[in-house]
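Model: You mentioned two targets. I'll fold them one after the other.
Researcher: Yes, keep them separate.
Model: Target one:
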Amino acid sequence: MAKNRLLRKSFWWQWRGVWITTPLISLIIIITRYFGLFQPLELFAFDLLVKMRSPQIRDNRVVIVGIGEEDVEKIGTALISDGIYAKLLEKLLKFQPVAIGLDVYRDVPIPLGTDELTKIFENNKNIIGIEKMIGDNRQYRVKASPILKAKKQIGFNDVILDQDNKIRRALLALYRGKNIQVSLGMYLASLYLEKKNINLEITEKDKYWKFRNTVFIPFKSNDGGYSNADSGGYQILLNYRGNVNHFETVSLFDVLDNKLPENWGKDKIILIGFVGESFQDIHLTPYTNSPDKRMAGVEIHANIVSQIISSAIDDRSLIKTWSKTYENVWIITWTFIGAIITWIFRRKKHFLQEIIVFISSQIILVIIVYIAFLMSWWIPLIPPFMGLISAAGSITIYNARNAGKIRQTFGRYLSAEIVNTLLETPEGVKLGGERRQITILTSDLRGFTAVSESLPPEEVVKILNYYLGFMANIITEYQGTIDEFMGDGILVLFGAPVNRKDDADRAIACSLAMQLAMEEINQQMKLWGYSPLKMGIGINTGEVVVGNIGSEKRAKYGIVGSEVNLTYRIESYTKGREILISEKTLNILKSEVNIAEEKRVSPKGVKEAINIYKIVGIEGKFKLYLPEKEEEIISLKNHFQIRYSLLSEKDVTQVYSEGIIKKIIIKDIEKGAEITLNIDNYLFPNPLDNLKLNLIDFPASEDIYGKVVTVDSSNNSFQIYFTYLSLSTEKIIFSINS
């Protein structure tokens, strides 16, 4: 059980960004959609889907007699008389159509020929007139022909306009109390289907209308991309067969002048209506991109008639929509897909793959929605598309914020490059390492241990933070990786985790910049009342193992190898303001360097002696130089008896020797002394040895630390540079000799 809980916790942690952001994004999108903010875009997407699919073949069961501007010009007036309509209907009835739909208002007579039209209305059961039922009584409603109304041969011709004034829905019926009034299209289609022995049925459970196997599920206010739309009456989504002029259309005078074939309208539905621009009965549809693509009202009714007939006889599907539950699941799914893609490819090196996969997922979404639409399913496109994008953006912001927090937190302890390696590469957090050649820089403050022992801990931390802050900025500038701070010491890597061709050159330039910065640091030390800080730097190049070292619970990015130890040995030979490099580093430099001194040393743990070099400048693109100071030797009037012992690996040996300080050496902030030994009792040191000294005549004075620089055995003397000389001890020496 504990193992399973751990695995679940691990799975949660691995995908934490997805679990945190996706539910919230999905909820926001669903709520936004509910309030209709996506509706304009969703209806626009619906129109694109309509235009993308191929048009249906022409339905020859429905034809149109269109009254256009040319017909009006021949008549000589826009008010077409009852007599002309009587002649038109008389000729059309000879074709033996199933029904004629007169999409023209005839609520009042227009002489001449009113009697002839009245007789035709009275004598024919298949002529269906219109009335306008929706709107204010005084202004918008238009009554039906009294004769056709009395015979109940009337259908309304009202259409439903969306907010953008496009017609995407068909109104099949309106409810007036207990009475039901059907539309012109529904009336005509019913007459045609009755002729085929297909009658309108009512489903038992939902009381929906039905022709054969086709159930006309009423439109609801939130179907498809709609949000809180008017769902009054009995509506369905209008499934257009094609763009304008899709149905066979003849002119008024084509009929009156007998220009049509004998069987032109036999067993068909004939619709009569205005088709010209000037008649103001043209509407916007999903196909409309320009004014000339608006569709005449009579053709819209033809589409409604054809849709009902085709669904019952040809099994042409009505446009269907999912329930809100399925649509919400669909939106959430694609939001998760967007989040998962971004989370998987969140590393910088996977950016191109992320773009490719992300664009591919968008294309797949569009293809799925389009194929579904070809199968007469209108499923959401814009909300899942927004879910994809929003989730990707949210994951990106989440990662950026977390990475920023991680960089801000761990950047204090690790270099930026190590943090980037941990964040951007999955293998960056794995234990283990790789063998590679790098340049290693170590620095240490000479005598700072003694300084820290004489100061309160708070002051020591203040000094260290100030000093290390300066050094960290310089190291970062030269693209070094700070592996760790060790008290006053710094271990810096050039070539890990990122390897560059000029690693050794940058290490030299960095060390010079660090030494130059000590002047500003020591100005602050002087203001604080402390002795100047003196730093030594050692640089070496070699093959090491670099990577994550430790355990699963705690690890660090570091290096292992003998070359690291050798670098520390080289650094231990330095005195203040000195940079020593190994021969291996010197040999791979691409820039020329200024060498002030060459030394042959035998570091502990190294079988053979090696050459090390004191560097005071670098040429090329860096051009940094340490100014050489003149050395001043001052003979003391009053000599000082001293006792000294050798420092070995930071430990003080218990063998003491005595000598006399006769001369003081001053070189800028560096101070030293020439010591003459007592012949009877002495331990003669070697160059580069570290010593601890005490003034015999002033037992209360603080310890002095120094490094041997030269030895003159013929005169039993040697010179040292102080690595630590307290201000109080310095005052003793110089006040006595002033």
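Model: Target two:
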Amino acid sequence: MKFFINEPQNVVNEAIEGILTDPKLTKLDNFPEVRVVLRKEIDANKVSVISGGGSGHEPAHAGFVGEGMLTAAVCGDIFASPSVDAVLSAIVATTGDQGCLLVIKNYTGDRLNFGLAAEQAREMGYKVETVIVGDDIALGEEVEQRGLAGTLFVHKVAGYLAEAGKDLEEVAAMAQKVASQTWSIGLSLEEGKKFEYPEASRLEDSEAELGLGIHGEPGVEKISMQNADVLVEKMLKKLKQFLPDEKQEYALLINNLGSVTPLEMSILLNSISKSELSKHIKLLVGPAQLMTSLNMNGVSISVLQLDDEITEALTAKAQPAAWMIRTYAEKSSVKSPELPKTLPYKASSNNEVSKAISTITTMLIESKDELNAIDEKVGDGDAGSTFATGAKKLQEVLDQLPLADYSELLITIGRILARETGGSSGVLLSILFTRAGNAYKESQHLGKSLLEGLDKMKEFGGAEEGQRTMIDALQPAFEALAEDKSLAEVASAARNGADKTKEITQTKFGRSSYLSKNSLEGIPDPGAEAAARVFEELA
């Protein structure tokens, strides 16, 4: 495909710069390392409402920053959660005595990064509440429900209450109420095409995909291509299974996932108007591009059960650029808050450790494209890039690391990964290394410390061995290290664990839980594959 871009690696930064021609918006001055879009004028006596996530969903999230909606938006790379530091910066830059609410879409990376930032902010003395939105009904209630465009209902209601001067407890409670009675379903005719590493379409001309998310992952099922009325009927049939009572009054949000023409969107609205549900729709948002998936040729429908309070909040005036025509203005920035240092310890030397880190990081950088290719088949295609980013940063600061002290080194690696590596993998590994570093102070045993770090990662991440994650390679490898086995035996254990993930086709955890058996069979988990390669390289 052809795109209106300059350099693929700069699309997010340049898009944000374009948004900042809005005279009411600004950014933190350490942009683009931290991408936070916020209001120029913030009332410190009111609750701040912060949301965000990966880019590629525009106008969400920065397009909804403004009076009556978000106070700030935190923007990650394409389909990748923003870093913990970026979220923490947004909290510190916008939050006064009344505290702040974080609105989080239910994806592992967002939960981890926003959740860890919230904990750090609380330690700094800030009042922070979180609301996790999982409005996607495609997968049923037995697995984690993803956050889709229904999240915008939460932004609007929370923003209205915050603007009205309500306290944090009331804002958070109403936001949670809205999240709990919002339901969404998506359908696509073609996947969105990435600016880099585009993959071939998995859909034939005769197929459509029902029940998909916003990160390019496969839908729950492929269905035959039909006319608009039939496709809408199938979406509403799924949706109505979850509505408590069709006789309730609802707000309807019709979201263009990227490249559906306005003409087609109006046809889809007309199809909805023919349904039984339409008799109970009181408010309409869209049809419009609201929370997209790059240029996906698809649509999502979201329904929110109304009451008088929610109706008042939804219909109140708001200023975000996504909802209004605005004046062109010069860009500006404000000073970013200073965060704790990434490298807290004095550098020390150890040739053996230095060589090991150089060997591992070089391998991860060289494996980027291959690991991305594996991840394209079972995820969003950025696993290799994620590991390579962390590896490059470790190489850059290698001579500044406390190589002679395992405890300090593990803790430092944890901090680097949390701040430099996107997605859930970076935060999970940061938790692992941080806990291992603290455990090493007591045990003075690297294998046992790493195993303890893995237990903490599992506690926060929720996955266990056998659920098709990097844990399937790390668990047996760390157990072998804890038993003082040779590196060759450790590498063999990691490889066996990674290879077993090719056979795991049913799981209730992570992105794999969204995919069919045919999509997973014979393909290793990219995180487990990367872990196995690390130990093989060391051996």
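Researcher: Noted. Anything on target two?
Model: The chain is about 45% helix and 15% strand.
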